Amino acid sequence: MQLAPALRTTAELRFTQHAPTLITRLSQLYATRFADDVQLKNWCLQLMQVMADALQARPAGLQALDQQRSQQPDWFTREDRLGYCAYTDRFAGTLQGVIQRIPHLQQLGVTYLHLLPFLKARAGENDGGFAVSDFNQVEATLGSMQDLEQLTQALRESGISLCSDFILNHVADDHPWAIAARAGDAKYRDYFYHYPDRTVPDQFEATLGQVFPQVAPGNFSYIDALQSWVWTTFYPYQWDLNYSNPAVFLDMTAAMLQLANRGIEVFRLDSTAFLWKRPGTTCMNQPEAHWILQCLRCITEITMPGVLLKAEAIVATRDLPAYLGDAQRGVQECHLAYHSSLMAAAWVAVAEQDTSLISAVIAGTPQLPPNTSWLSYVRCHDDIGWNVLRPEASLQATDVEQRLSAVSQFFAGQGDSFASGASFQASDPAAVHGTVGMAAALCGLSRATDAEQSRTAVQRQLLLYGLSFCFGGMPLIYMGDEFAQENNEDYRSVAAHQYDARWLHRPQWNEALATRSQTAGNAAHLCSSGLQRLLQWRRKLPQLQAQAARRLLHTNSSSLLAFSRGEAHAPFVFIGNFSDQPQTVTLSVLAQQLPSAQPSGSAISGCWKTPDGAVPPDILLIPAWSQCWLIASNLSATGVN
Ligand code: GLC
């Protein structure tokens, strides 16, 4: 590696630690792609040079951050960490505009900002920027690379890390690689999966799922210029990259490292589950997809250990933990992963007024590997996908299809539902796919006809957010939710959006609503002040650190969800009532389920406190759609006092 002497020592140390895994995984992935070991070695040397170049070019401020974070590798798992997610244009117009919104983020206590794709995207339809045409340019309407650098610096000075999507599964059909492939360049044709006829695509289709069955059915698109079927998991204009080709891995690694040097601190690795294709499978969660992520992790550990990788893998609970690595086998993968089944199951609890599915998801969620965290969330820019819950739902219902369809129909506002969302990508109204809509609309705010109903809708939303704050991960606020913002119907008249109902929950920043939220007497204020209160408590509770242990607690009501956190400290207990009826819980019974408590009957109730100091009675009434946060202040292994 060509490196300045000052960088050499640190880099060599990190290299010694992570190179063995990197080399093993690279050989597993690519050894068979080279004629001999010499060729493989030369390719590895090219990769090392890409890493050395990135390290050499890394600005001093970012190197200092790398150093600091290597010494504190759990920095992002603390109870005072909070994420916020927004589209740049909808939130603030441009990247420079985002700088002006930093005070709003600081007021919420945000420490991590995920700006949805802002790199140059395909003109016209581009899946909200998820069809990237150039990894080295910012979308012109949003700003420039210089603006990006200024933004990352301003955020960093305010204690906020910028998270950017790194869309690594596919590129836009007008990315230079796709253009070269279309022009007949053999090298770039092999950056994609292309088949002259339907033989292979049909074999794959037999076991593949579909992401957008209604508007983009199938997983292959016929591209005239290539006279081939090209693999397009998502929209026909998003061409899947062929990661079995080592050149793709090399170029994508270089793209990611260069972006990191602009000051991006967290990469949201988009659609990670789809990175490797294998006949006869769903082509999701393949071992090689994990190896690719493990290689990227080793590469960032060596060159920029302050950078975090976050897996976007919308998969069943049992398939999620692997994206965070495996502590027992000494495998490191991503630092963060969306807990999508927890999110979906929480919405099921709202529809069914029953917490059994969410309890099953929590029971199936293992302890996190060290220095990793879930990303816990209520809403995001995508639909709520119900299919990830099939395994848990099938344990509890004979007709899973019917159960999940009922949930989907509930949120589409059918029957006596309070929700006003819509079904996503389901041509057959009884089919299960997803649900779209802002949290407030799904919680009943848009259909509320009086102040009481509005208050109840906000309570539901706060309950869901409360769960995401206490579960054990970095929580994420989706732009607009801090003010209970409702659906945005405008997309129906925008040509590039009207085919994709997810735009229903991608609203513009609403200044009037933000102002209204500062004065009492309306839903926006109820929601914003409620969230602020929960967040203030959260920041004071070390029990809510992502790694702290979690234990499900049994109650006598299927509408209640109760779990404890952080038994190393005075245990914290979350109790949520997912129903429109008040429920009671006996605190002494809950306490008996905690290891440090002694089963000494109702006297134990005196040991519980709410975060603001109130002492609850032993039999506690939890109002409809409410939550209770308790701390067992005097419980200890030696007894109760
Ligand atoms: C991810 C994004 C989603 C996008 C898809 C294809 O799942 O969250 O919005 O449509 O990837 O890039």
Features:
single chain, alpha/beta, TIM Barrel, Oligo-1,6-glucosidase, domain 2, Immunoglobulin-like, 3 domains, five-stranded antiparallel sheet, 36% helix, binds alpha-D-glucopyranose
Describe the structure.
With 641 residues, the chain is α/β, with parallel strands linked by helices. The protein folds into 3 domains: 76-168 and 250-539, TIM Barrel (Alpha-Beta Barrel); 170-240, Oligo-1,6-glucosidase, domain 2 (Alpha-Beta Complex), CATH 3.90.400; 549-632, Golgi alpha-mannosidase II (Immunoglobulin-like), CATH 2.60.40.1180. The chain is 36% helix and 17% strand. An 8-stranded parallel beta barrel has the order 1-2-5-11-12-13-14-18. The chain is globular, with a radius of gyration of 25 Å. Mean pLDDT is 94; it is low at 598-603 and 636-641. The structure holds alpha-D-glucopyranose. Alpha-D-glucopyranose is lined by residues 127-128, 130, 167, 234, 270-271, 312, 381-382. The site of alpha-D-glucopyranose (GLC) has 10 residues, from loops.
Topology:
Layout: H1 5-30, H2 37-57, H3 60-71, E1 83-86, H4 88-92, H5 95-100, H6 102-108, E2 112-115, E3 119-121, E4 132-138, H7 145-157, E5 161-166, E6 170-172, H8 176-182, H9 186-189, E7 194-195, H10 199-205, E8 220-223, E9 228-231, E10 238-240, H11 246-260, E11 266-269, H12 287-303, E12 308-311, E13 336-338, H13 340-352, H14 356-363, E14 373-377, E15 384-385, H15 390-396, H16 400-411, E16 422-424, E17 434-436, H17 439-442, H18 451-470, E18 473-478, H19 511-516, H20 523-539, E19 550-553, E20 560-565, E21 572-577, E22 583-586, H21 587-592, E23 608-609, E24 619-622, E25 627-632, E26 635-636, E27 639-640
Parallel strand pairs: 1-2, 1-18, 2-5, 5-11, 11-12, 12-13, 13-14, 14-18
Antiparallel strand pairs: 3-4, 6-10, 7-9, 8-9, 15-17, 16-17, 19-20, 20-21, 21-25, 22-24, 23-25, 26-27
Helix pairs in contact: 1-2, 1-12, 2-11, 13-14, 13-18, 15-16, 18-20
Residues 127-128, 130, 167, 234, 270-271, 312, 381-382 line the site of alpha-D-glucopyranose.
